[in-house]
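Problem: given the chain below (155 residues), write out its structure.
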Amino acid sequence: MLPALEYSFRIDIHVDKPIVISSSPLKGKRQLIPIRSGTVSGALNGQVMPGGIDSQFIDPDGICRLSARYALHVGQGTVYVENNGIRRVPDAFKEKLFGDDMRFFDELPPSQIYFRSVPVFETDVPELSWLTTSVFICAAERTASGVTLEFYKVV
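Solution.
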């Protein structure tokens, strides 16, 4: 039995500058990226609330393990999101992940960056319970000011 995906909604998130906790090609890079704002469109419509954080652990091999936590204010109420995933870039760009200049991401077509996550939602709003009773996956893409996330329900 092969699962299918059903498009649900999109979030465009605007972030602040990363707060680099540590960075070493031998041990990896740890950074926190404050989530400032954003918009939600599709089956949900609303705003990303300020105050979220994207914790990133970039391993020495260049694999970035992400764990973002943020809240949405949509027409029906509020939703808490915990979104965990992986981002990887082509081998030729891995060293650049440990520098300060991330403009190299602008040179890479989105098709060359693997960026997927598995979100989990919490809400106390009955009309939004469909978010808590299904599995979702997320396809992500970096933008000049943050990230675009497209959410798909596994059916």
